Amino acid sequence: MSPRHASPPQERSAGPAGTGLRPPRHPVDRRAVGWWTGQALVLVAPPVLVLVLLALLIPPARFWLLLPAGAIAAPGLLYTLVMPRWRYRVHRWETTEEAVYAASGWLWQKWRVAPMSRIQTVDTVRGPIQRLFGLAGVTVTTASAAGAIKINGLDRALAADLVERLTARTQATPGDAT
């Protein structure tokens, strides 16, 4: 199989420690860097382009339009170059017989653990930019007030397989997920 459509990583038992908080071991797909870069460009580019276009069309206001364009473009460029690579280093996921583990964020980083007995639904999410990169996300909804666990940036085939496996496992796990 090619790395793009590799089979899902093998699950492992959490061992005697159970479902304790620990870093998950699987990175997201490398294409997530391109996806996050595309998201950053969609956020940063439009206001800069509008201001530059207006500066070209309105010569007397050129300085006052290019000034905010530069003020947005400089940190926006830094954000676009740094954020995707940083997130790739942080985002991890893993499933075991007992739980789903996820680490995410870039400025505010968090680790989440969802025991199988607490999982209520498992969904696949694919936005338009994700689809361009052949990626998908998995949302694991639990009975937690902290909200769902999201594993973004997975190969779409891996995400579909993960949803299927988690759904089967949660149906076989005793408890009412509350």
From TrEMBL:
Q: Which UniProt keywords apply?
A: Membrane, Transmembrane, Transmembrane helix
Pfam families given in the database record? bPH_2
**Bilayer-spanning residue ranges:** 32-57, 63-82
Keyword hit for Transmembrane helix: yes
Domain named YdbS-like PH: residues = 88-165
Q: Locate the region Disordered.
A: 1-25
Q: Kindly provide the name given to this protein in its UniProt entry.
A: YdbS-like PH domain-containing protein
Instruction: Name the source organism.
Output: Planomonospora venezuelensis
